[in-house]
Specification:
Elements lengths: L9 H16 L11 E13 L4 E3 L4 E2 L3 E18 L3 E4 L2 E3 L4 H11 L8 E8 L10 H16 L5 H11 L11 E4 L12 E3 L7 E6 L10 H11 L6 H17 L3 H21 L9 H15 L5 E4 L5 E6 H10 L4 E3 L17
Parallel strand pairs: 5-7
Antiparallel strand pairs: 1-4, 2-3, 4-7, 4-8, 5-6, 8-9, 10-12, 10-13, 11-12
Helix pairs in contact: 1-4, 3-4, 6-7
The protein binds ligand 2P0.
């Protein structure tokens, strides 16, 4: 939308996004590739205080701050190389230009290159299980900006890379780091102050457990659901005040490594986000009966003395939070849980990964 509330044309959208890129890159905008190829990895992330609603759709600027923890080894590997034509090879399969994945990825790369190219071959592999309901777009765009930074020799700061990754997908700005990240909503219209900030806390015993209760692709994109909720949920006005209360408590709980404080807070925040969705008119409901069964199971585990809490995103599946010893007990009881160490880092380049020639 422009200032009068009229929708922008695709050319105007591109221009606004390119202005931000130029503002971040400065004189570096004029640089061509400094190398022939570059590789990078980035972790997926799960929000403990959610991002739900945008104040600017073109630049993916959020209504509120949010807070996430990375998913360690789960994320994206990417290699980009200067080539004779654009190609996208995703999880070992070449995607044609009419696929959504190709369009989304190259629309992003087009923000950084002029009419003269360069053409790019992108080989990318997600280590996030597709059915797990964990967004791979966040890690993909974070890996993409890391690759570009190396290929073009920009030498940008992590904060600048985070600002650029946000243009691909909002939550991508939290995928530049391992561990906890605070995404500051920022106040500026151009979004240059809206980026992730790494929280210097390592919590070695914290675990995330992915619980896929429902496989298959999700019905509605989170982008679309978010937009719908902002204008059509009578509860949306409660969201910003709720985040303002939750965020400082979550930050303190992280500093103190206190799961008994962080867990209920993350669970309550996710449930509030889903309440906003459910109350929207028409309603947005990602939960299935299997989701409710799993939620009840989490409650039962707590009644049995296990310190476990959950969070959920725009899908039916759960992500559990627990300390390592509890996490091992949970896997014993529910063997389909996938255990993740949020702080497990992968080396930047792993050419042994399939798809990397
Ligand atoms: C989050 N989600 O904080 C929230 C909670 C989904 C539920 O960030 O439109 O793919 O690309 O900015 O980043 C998913 O939204 O949306 C998301 P866009 P994105 O993790």
């Amino acid at each position: 939308m422009d200032h009068q509330g009229n929708p922008l044309t695709p050319a105007e959208v591109l221009q606004r996004r390119r202005q931000v890129v130029r503002a971040v890159l400065g004189v570096r905008s004029a640089l061509g590739p400094q190398r022939s190829c570059a590789e990078a990895a980035a972790p997926a992330n799960v929000a403990l205080v959610k991002y739900w609603g945008k104040r600017d759709e073109v630049l993916n600027l959020p209504v509120t701050d949010s807070l996430s923890v990375s998913l360690g080894r789960l994320g994206t590997w990417m290699k980009i190389a200067v080539a004779e034509r654009d190609r996208l090879i995703l999880d070992g399969r070449e995607h044609s230009p009419d696929t959504q994945e190709y369009r989304r990825m190259f629309e992003f790369f087009d923000l950084f290159r002029g009419e003269a190219g360069p053409f790019l071959e992108i080989v990318t592999r997600n280590t996030v299980p597709t059915a797990a309901g964990v967004a791979s777009s966040a890690s993909a765009f974070a890996a993409a900006v890391r690759c570009l930074d190396v290929l073009m020799g920009w030498g940008l700061s992590e904060q600048e890379l985070s600002t650029l990754a946000r243009l691909g997908s909002g939550s991508a700005c939290r995928s530049l780091w391992y561990g906890f990240v605070h995404w500051h909503r920022g106040k500026r219209a151009d979004g240059l102050d809206s980026h992730g900030e790494w929280i210097p806390v390592v919590w070695p015993s914290l675990r995330v457990l992915l619980w896929v209760v429902e496989g298959g692709p999700k019905g509605r994109s989170s982008r679309d659901a978010m937009r719908h909720c902002v204008t059509n949920s009578p509860l949306y006005s409660a969201w910003a005040p709720l985040v303002a209360r939750d965020l400082p408590v979550a930050l303190r709980a992280i500093q103190e490594q206190n799961l008994r404080e962080l867990g209920p807070l993350a669970e309550g925040n996710a449930l509030a986000m889903h309440a906003i969705m459910i109350a929207a008119r028409p309603s947005v409901r990602y939960w299935t009966p299997a989701t409710l069964v799993a939620l009840e199971q989490v409650e039962r585990w707590r009644e049995e003395g296990l310190d476990v809490w959950c969070t959920m995103d725009a899908g039916p599946n759960l992500k559990l939070l627990a300390e390592e010893s509890t996490a091992r007990e949970l896997v014993r009881r529910q063997p389909d849980l996938q255990l993740v160490d949020p702080f497990e880092q992968v080396s930047v380049v792993d050419s042994s990964q399939p798809g990397f020639q």
